[in-house]
Amino acid sequence: MHEGNTHMLQVEGLNVFYGSFHAVRDVAFDVRPGEIFGLLGPNGAGKTSTLSAVEGLLNFQSGTITVAGYNIKNEPLKARANVGVQLQSTSFQAELSVTEIIRLYAGVHGVPVTKQSLQDVLAAINLVDSGNKKYGELSGGQQQRVSLYIATIHQPPLVLLDEPTTGLDPQSRRQLWERIEALREKGHGVLLTTHSMEEAEAVCDRIGIIDHGRVIIIDTPQALIEQYRNDPEVISVSRRGKVTLEDVFIALTGRAVRA
Ligand SMILES: Nc1ncnc2c1ncn2[C@@H]1O[C@H](COP(=O)(O)OP(=O)(O)OP(=O)(O)O)[C@@H](O)[C@H]1O
Fold it and tell me: Is Kinase found in the keyword set (predicted)?
């Protein structure tokens, strides 16, 4: 991490075009140490494009992205060394065992593995008896625990999670939330995308709502609900007389389903 740096991530004036299509428009936000920042938006809003730009996988047309103090265009290797990305479960080879996957990624990042440290890792991710199981044979929740561990194996200051709990049952989701919160406690900055307003309310310190490529608002979930509680549009979409973050989200982004 760059000395004197106070942000895990700083995105300023980010623009992404696919041909002539303007997918991300002047996006700006930051993620601080010990903060979980949620990027929310309807389908096609530009969340994954923004995350891909931060990962260094997408050549954006204008803007500045700084990871742990390193500009990703000027110092791409240093910037990328400071990011951990949770890969989709399909990115791992289903035939490899949990232990083989841990050894493989530890090797990639130069993290030493001993018999004892391997046992400790398996215990930490609640897979003590599953070290020899093939990745493809794990449940969705178990796969997510492995992939979250792999994302943070090199203790990166910034952790990127693209819809980390999609498809998980309530128990597995809660367990993953606790693991994400543990990263916050250790001072990592976490940037996650989610379609779950419940998740955003439960774990995110701040959220940015993105729509049609633009960030339309950034605040804490509580402050957003407070700010829009008496807004007639929010009240009109609310159900059972209680205003939730989802009501605010739908009122701000419109009710129409995106193509
Ligand atoms: N490689 C590409 N080529 C052309 N258009 C693309 C490409 N990738 C994304 N887009 C378009 O850019 C827009 C933003 O897509 P993006 O995947 O970033 O949205 P998202 O917010 O992550 O959506 P979702 O919630 O559905 O995952 C969409 O209109 C999408 O169709």
Answer: no
pTM of the model: 0.91
- How far apart are the CA of 121 and the centre of ligand 1, in A? 35
pLDDT of residue 116: 94
- Rounded to a whole number, what is the distance in angstroms from the first to the last CA of the chain? 40
Q: Is residue 247 part of a domain?
A: no
Ligand 1 environment, Cβ below 6 A: 18, 21, 23, 41, 43-49
What letter would DSSP give residue 156? -
C-alpha 48 to ligand 1 mean position (Å): 7
Interval 46-103: pLDDT, tens: 999 999 999 998 999 999 999 999 999 999 999 999 999 987 767 789 999 999 999 9
Residue of the CA atom closest to atom 30 of ligand 1: 44
- Residue closest by Cα to atom 26 of ligand 1: 43
Both structure tokens of 241 = 């007389």
List pLDDT tens digits, range 136-148. 999 988 998 999 9
Output the CA–CA distances (angstroms, integers) from residue 208 to 43, 94, 107, 178, in the order listed: 15, 35, 35, 21
The DSSP 8-state label assigned to residue 120 in this structure reads: H
Considering only CA atoms, which residue is closest to atom 28 of ligand 1? 44
Please give the pLDDT value at position 6: 75
> Amino acid letter at 123?
A
Count CB neighbours of 231 within 10 A.
16
**Ligand 1 geometric centre to CA of 186 (Å):** 32
Q: Which domain holds residue 74?
A: 9-219
The total domain count for the chain is 1
Low-confidence ranges of the chain (pLDDT < 70): 1-5, 89, 255-259
